[in-house]
């Protein structure tokens, strides 16, 4: 039965900079002992003929192939600019946005 001592818990608490009371040290030693025992049981169940896996089912890529293609031209992108005062919000081949935070141009 894997066990962890109260002194080992105190050492781990010091490393993690956690201040534990005497009662907490006893409680955590008991709880960590249960966790270590459970992990040991899982290790015993694992058969030698079963390879380690990261996922129980085989994974396949469901996405399409990444094929490069041409993007939008500047004019095509700017065609989607919002209309302000009846005109597209475009200036110097860029989107025009309102000033913020009192910045000056």
From TrEMBL:
Keyword match Ligase: yes
Domain of life: Bacteria
InterPro entries registered for this protein in UniProt: Asp/Glu-ADT_sf_sub_c (IPR036113), GatC (IPR003837)
Entry's Gene Ontology BP terms: glutaminyl-tRNAGln biosynthesis via transamidation; regulation of translational fidelity; translation
Keyword Disulfide bond carried by entry: no
Keyword tags: ATP-binding, Ligase, Nucleotide-binding, Protein biosynthesis
Family per similarity comment: Belongs to the GatC family.
Annotated protein name in UniProt: Aspartyl/glutamyl-tRNA(Asn/Gln) amidotransferase subunit C
Organism: Actinopolymorpha pittospori
């Amino acid at each position: 039965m894997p066990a962890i001592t109260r002194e080992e818990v105190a050492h781990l608490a010091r490393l993690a900079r956690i201040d534990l009371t005497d009662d907490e040290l006893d409680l955590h030693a008991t709880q960590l002992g249960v966790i270590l025992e459970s992990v040991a049981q899982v290790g015993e169940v694992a058969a030698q003929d079963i390879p380690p896996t990261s996922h129980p089912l085989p994974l396949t890529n469901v996405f399409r192939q990444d094929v490069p293609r041409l993007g939008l031209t500047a004019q095509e992108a700017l065609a989607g600019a919002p209309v302000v005062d009846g005109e597209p919000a475009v200036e110097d081949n860029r989107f025009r946005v309102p000033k913020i935070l009192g910045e000056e141009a």
